[in-house]
UniProtKB/TrEMBL annotation:
It comes from the Bacteria. InterPro entries: RsmH, SAM-dep_MeTrfase_MraW_recog, SAM-dependent_MTases_sf. It catalyses: cytidine(1402) in 16S rRNA + S-adenosyl-L-methionine = N(4)-methylcytidine(1402) in 16S rRNA + S-adenosyl-L-homocysteine + H(+). S-adenosyl-L-methionine binds at residues 36-38, 53, 80, 98, 105. NCBIfam families: 16S rRNA (cytosine(1402)-N(4))-methyltransferase RsmH (TIGR00006). Belongs to the methyltransferase superfamily. RsmH family. The keyword Methyltransferase applies. Its EC number is 2.1.1.199. It comes from Pelagibacterium lacus. This is Ribosomal RNA small subunit methyltransferase H.
Length: 325
């Protein structure tokens, strides 16, 4: 049996490897395994790797690496916030997280992530829990508008929500192309511009998979898990994710303002020291892999300071609460 062919190309691969170096003999957790692109490169560089993914469809790629690198690759089925469980008590030198949806998920119409293909309105990475169809057909108009605005930064969120509610009153919305057409009809489409459903689909996917909660929990888990000198590399694909990571690494962004009328508190020693400035894909990679256009890599080295308790305030995590008018 041949090795499974990956339809997904890992973005900023060389930059991620550089951020986690040195890798020979290191133990690295690949928190978002996908098709195993980062894991394979890390293994080729001499590291031992634990891959994590909640998507059952990645099993063939994990099995292939386990067979090729016996004793150096292990797979943990679960959410990437469970870094400590995946480590199983082993010392870990580095963690890499690639946030968001993979190309192979987008390319499978039956997964319901893409507005370019007809498929069930699903979007569940794990295949379990509430689907996008449940949200689209179950939330109130105000809740839908708030969700689309908070998680998709869609300025036409109220118009889109109103049109969705009107359409579902006739028949349940269950197909991705059906939802995309409703949105396009509502806001129109500019020639050469992004598809008008892009931001709404992003918002639904984030909500279905609790992506912001997962990201925050994973960042603090990495802070607890990594020893002094340990390295964390995080690749994000839109500004909301990138803002969370940026503020997590820079504690001056989350400390809050101090009154100039009060004695100034001593600046605490940071938990993270940046490896380098944020990295983005060059022209060659963007031409080869369009998904890399929006990617940003932030990386840092763990200091000796004790880990913080999990706290999302100050990280700029968008808020959406059911029942909010």
């Amino acid at each position: 049996m041949g090795e499974p062919q990956s339809p997904h190309e890992s973005v900023l691969l060389a930059e991620v490897l550089g951020a986690l170096a040195p890798l020979d003999g290191a133990v690295v957790i690949d928190g978002t395994f996908g098709a195993g692109g980062y894991s394979r490169a890390l293994l080729d560089a001499g590291a031992s790797v634990v891959g994590i993914d909640r998507d059952p469809s990645v099993a063939p790629f994990a099995d292939a690496l386990a067979a090729q690198f016996p004793g150096r690759f292990r797979f943990f089925a679960g959410e990437f916030s469970a870094l400590e469980d995946a480590a199983e008590g082993a010392a870990v030198d580095g963690v890499v997280l690639d946030i968001g949806v993979s190309s192979m998920q987008l390319d499978l119409a039956e997964r319901g992530f893409s507005f370019m293909r007809s498929g069930p309105l699903d979007m569940r990475m794990s295949g379990e829990g509430e689907s996008a169809a449940d949200l689209v057909n179950g939330l109130s108009e105000a809740e839908l508008a708030n969700l689309i605005f908070a998680y998709g930064e869609e300025r036409a969120s109220r118009r889109i929500a109103k049109t969705i509610v009107a359409a579902r009153s006739e028949t349940e919305i269950s197909d991705t192309l059906e939802l995309a057409r409703i949105i396009e009809k509502t806001v129109g489409r500019k020639p050469g511009g992004p598809h008008p459903a892009t931001r709404t689909f992003q918002a639904l996917r984030i909500a279905v998979n609790r992506e912001f909660d997962q990201l925050v929990e994973a960042l603090f888990a990495a802070e607890r898990l990594l020893p002094e000198g340990g390295r964390l590399a995080v690749v994000t694909f839109h500004s909301l994710e990138d803002r969370i990571v940026k503020r997590f690494f820079d504690e001056t962004k989350t400390a809050g303002p101090q009154s100039r009328h009060l004695p100034q508190a001593a600046q605490a020693q940071p938990r993270w020291s940046p490896v380098r400035k944020a990295a983005r894909a060059g022209a060659a990679e963007m031409a080869r892999n369009p998904r890399a256009r929006s990617a940003t890599l932030r990386s840092a080295i763990r200091t000796s300071m004790a880990a913080r308790p999990v706290l999302s305030s100050g990280l700029g995590v968008p808020g959406f609460t059911r029942g909010a008018a």
